[in-house]
Amino acid sequence: MTAIGRARAHTNIALIKYWGKRDKALFLPMNSSLSLTLDAFYTDTQVIFDEALTEDQFVLNGQNQTDSEVIKISQFLDLFRRAFKETRRAQVLSYNFVPTAAGLASSASAFAALAMAVNQALGLGLDRETLSTYARRGSGSSTRSLFGGFVEWDMGTTSENSVAQPVDDADWDVGMIVIAINTSKKTVSSRIGMDHTVSTSPFYEAWKESAKHDLVAIKEAILARDFQTVGQITEHNGMKMHATTLSANPPFTYFEPETLRVQNLVRQIREVTGLSAYMTMDAGPNVKVLCRASEMERLVAELAKDFPNDKIITSLPGQAAYCLTEEEWRESERRFYDD
């Protein structure tokens, strides 16, 4: 006997950063965060629970995954199996529609899509906030990919109330541009960098306190649709997070020479042209630019004077994760292989 679920979830970029865990097993963050879900990047996933299977299977982009990757998926599925007395093993098939050149991690969209698919397959009927407590255990940022637009991940006080919540649809001329500088594997992973910063940076406690105020201020600005203030807070918060890595012992940074060049270019474009362009960065060298959707074409033209077009990717706000029909799933498979 089988049970099938299929879902799509889009990735997100944090504007108020999540940086540091207070509980590594439960993926409970040190601070609340806020992100923008993007429509240009997403993961489609199908899960089949089958009593005939003797072990879990994981196929990503048409390739059987290594034992270590299968173990990660199995551990995630076990969260549901334990909670809902499910004994069947499962086959997980996923396609990442995240351009290689984007330099974006797909774990947020991947685990959000898988959680949504499991919810459908097993008929659990979990609401999105509750589902986010499961998705969080696969990837912290996946909590936010269950919702569209601007989304808050409330740090909470327990595992049950550390949940994602929608803030705003971001349907008021909001866009984002990704400038891919280096898409190679990072020398310092996000997990290691985060742990090292938390344990050694004398600035870390100040970062946590500052992030609390940033979150309150940016939510107020979002609700007022004050784009300039949203952009200014986004840029400052991202730079403050990266400052904690420079103050770690020993210090390290995700910046590369090209990163600094892009940062200076974005500031110059903003000051000279008056276009609304505010940068942010995750734990990596690539720069994301929060901008007005109506100004993206002009911004791309300015950026393209210094960077090739295939390194510049535009996106509008993405929608919440949702279940796919069988026909939509088949179309997704065809599109992946055609591309």
From TrEMBL:
<dbReference type="InterPro" id="IPR005935">
    <property type="entry name" value="Mev_decarb"/>
</dbReference>
<dbReference type="Pfam" id="PF22700">
    <property type="entry name" value="MVD-like_N"/>
</dbReference>
<protein>
    <recommendedName>
        <fullName>diphosphomevalonate decarboxylase</fullName>
        <ecNumber>4.1.1.33</ecNumber>
    </recommendedName>
</protein>
<dbReference type="InterPro" id="IPR014721">
    <property type="entry name" value="Ribsml_uS5_D2-typ_fold_subgr"/>
</dbReference>
<dbReference type="InterPro" id="IPR053859">
    <property type="entry name" value="MVD-like_N"/>
</dbReference>
<keyword id="KW-0067">ATP-binding</keyword>
<keyword id="KW-0547">Nucleotide-binding</keyword>
<keyword id="KW-0444">Lipid biosynthesis</keyword>
<keyword id="KW-0456">Lyase</keyword>
<comment type="similarity">
    <text>Belongs to the diphosphomevalonate decarboxylase family.</text>
</comment>
<feature type="domain" description="Mvd1 C-terminal">
    <location>
        <begin position="177"/>
        <end position="316"/>
    </location>
</feature>
<dbReference type="InterPro" id="IPR029765">
    <property type="entry name" value="Mev_diP_decarb"/>
</dbReference>
<dbReference type="Pfam" id="PF18376">
    <property type="entry name" value="MDD_C"/>
</dbReference>
<dbReference type="GO" id="GO:0004163">
    <property type="term" value="F:diphosphomevalonate decarboxylase activity"/>
</dbReference>
<feature type="domain" description="Diphosphomevalonate decarboxylase-like N-terminal">
    <location>
        <begin position="9"/>
        <end position="164"/>
    </location>
</feature>
<keyword id="KW-0443">Lipid metabolism</keyword>
<dbReference type="InterPro" id="IPR041431">
    <property type="entry name" value="Mvd1_C"/>
</dbReference>
<dbReference type="InterPro" id="IPR036554">
    <property type="entry name" value="GHMP_kinase_C_sf"/>
</dbReference>
<dbReference type="InterPro" id="IPR020568">
    <property type="entry name" value="Ribosomal_Su5_D2-typ_SF"/>
</dbReference>
